[in-house]
Design a protein that fits this description.
This protein is an all-alpha fold and 263 residues long. The chain has helices at residues 2-24, 28-48, 52-71, 76-96, 103-110, 121-137, 139-147, 149-154, 159-181, 186-200, 204-229, 233-262. It has twelve helices and no strands.
Length: 263
């Protein structure tokens, strides 16, 4: 349980920080596609007998770079969809070469936060620290490019470079969070809390802080609820993420109605 709380906190911080820009840039499809495509890397790594974490990292980074390259030549959503199709196809091929699904691969889909071992804490923490530091380094140009791309270009911020940096950060975040919450649920953790935070305030720094705090509350509550009910942690992560988003939209609606009445 100590390992679970430690890892979940690291994941929540990373998901809150990276997810803030995922929501801000309207990159929800990318945040969904990269972890699902990285799953193919875990399948390939298991097939050849190397670390699944290594396979995750390689395929997540390759998928992010492929999305960035294709986006320069076509629409971003089309590039993301094509990349996802290719990676899922490779994953299907790798899995067809084995007669059984390795438990560690299955856990990458749905998460295994209560089964995290001691030797997994350090690489996950290192990956999380790298994501947060990289985001802070490019925070101002990435924020400007996300909100006002034309103004950013006029000030010398290259949109393609920012997009590539952002995709690489998403890939690293995906690689280190998949073993904890799974490919199908890191998406909800990167979308629900940041979207709720964006609904509560227009200040970027405050929204980023709220996003991290809400993500931490989500995973902590999910672990406690899973411990008490013996239900999967992923279920609670997904439900709570949706609830946070709904709460944010309700708050926006109430605030808009109040503003109309005041005028």
């Amino acid at each position: 349980m100590v390992h679970a709380w430690t890892i979940a906190t690291i994941v929540a911080i990373v998901a809150g920080v990276v997810g803030f820009f995922v929501v801000l840039r309207g990159a929800a499809f990318v945040a969904d596609a990269v972890p699902q495509g990285a799953f193919a890397g875990a399948a390939g790594a298991s097939l050849v007998g190397v670390s699944t974490l290594l396979g995750l990292g390689v395929f997540a980074l390759a998928g992010a770079l492929l999305i960035g390259w294709l986006s320069r030549r076509s629409r971003s959503d089309v590039a993301t969809a094509l990349t996802l199709v290719v990676l899922l196809g490779l994953g299907s091929l790798f899995l067809s070469f084995t007669t059984e699904y390795a438990p560690e691969i299955f856990s990458l889909l749905f998460g295994e936060v209560l089964g995290v071992s001691t030797n997994e804490i350090l690489p996950i923490a290192a990956g999380g620290l790298l994501c947060v530091l990289a985001t802070l380094v490019i925070f101002r140009p990435l924020l400007l490019n996300s909100l006002m791309p034309e103004l950013a270009a006029a000030r010398g911020v290259r949109g393609s470079r920012m997009e590539l940096c952002f995709l690489v950060i998403v890939a690293v975040a995906t690689s280190m969070t998949l073993p904890v919450v799974g490919a199908l649920l890191i998406f909800s953790l990167m979308i629900g809390p940041p979207a709720a935070a964006r609904s509560l305030t227009s200040s970027p720094l405050l929204a980023l802080l709220i996003s991290v705090l809400v993500a931490m509350a989500t995973v902590w509550t999910a672990i406690a609820a899973s411990f008490e009910t013996d239900w999967p942690v992923g279920f609670f992560v997904g439900v709570l993420g949706a609830c946070w988003y709904a709460a944010g939209r309700i708050w926006v609606s109430l605030r808009s109605r109040r503003a109309v009445r005041d005028t």
